[in-house]
Design goal:
The protein has seven helices and six strands; from the N terminus they run H-E-E-H-H-E-H-E-H-H-E-E-H. The chain has 200 residues and is of the alpha/beta class. The chain has one domain (3-189): Uracil-DNA Glycosylase, subunit E, CATH 3.40.470. Helix 1 runs antiparallel to helix 4 (97-114) and helix 3 packs across helix 7. It starts with a helix and ends in a 9-residue tail after the last helix.
């Protein structure tokens, strides 16, 4: 068993029974990161939805379909990504600083274990957490920076945002914005030699 697997399994044993914040009382299952521990790309989202809460796995259900579609736009295969969220429990209220702070050591350790070259910060809350500033998450979408001086972070609108749109026109507009961001993401992944460069 590799050192990464041993470290991650040990961490999971601790966090699967976490009761560090009030959201633990209302969850069905704690949702920890999942995917290829040797992935060069991580996607960190906001928090589990009902499908994730039920299954204990991130990026499921209708939201997962939108995430896959966005990754397809970037040219990134699903199994090249390790998925996680900044919260491991489905919130039953608007998450505040104590809940976000309680889960931070978990996802920071997960980043350390996976050691990716590129992190996709999916959504405003994940982007703010990884950026570490008071910049509104909506202003971070489409921008990049480095995490701990070595890992490139690219912020995107959450791919599942169109699910919240009330009309086909706003859903289409949202998806166009997301598609543009994920084409930019593909360019970044090629620049980092994670994806093959397009032939001229």
């Amino acid at each position: 068993m590799s050192d990464k697997i041993q470290r991650y399994n040990k961490m999971k044993e601790e966090w699967i029974k976490c009761n560090r914040c009030m959201f633990s009382a209302g969850r069905v299952k704690a949702v920890l990161g999942a995917g290829n521990l040797d992935a060069q790309i991580m996607m960190i989202g906001q928090w589990p939805g009902k499908d994730e809460d039920k299954l204990g796995i991130p990026v499921q259900g209708e939201g997962g379909k939108w995430v896959k579609a966005a990754l397809d736009v970037a040219g990134i295969p699903w199994d090249w990504v390790f998925f996680d969220n900044i919260l491991s429990c489905k919130p039953n209220a608007t998450p505040k600083k104590p809940e976000k702070a309680a889960c931070r050591p978990r996802w920071e350790e997960t980043i350390d274990i996976v050691s990716p070259k590129l992190i996709i910060a999916a959504g405003a809350e994940a982007s703010k957490a990884l950026h570490g500033s008071n910049t509104p998450g909506s202003r971070l979408a489409g921008t990049s920076w480095t995490y701990k001086e070595t890992i490139v972070v690219f912020s995107t609108t959450h791919p599942a945002e169109p699910l919240r749109m009330k009309s086909p026109d706003t859903q289409t507009a949202s998806w166009k914005k997301i598609s543009l961001e994920y084409r930019m993401l593909g360019d970044i992944a090629r620049g980092l030699c994670i994806l093959p460069r397009s032939e001229e």
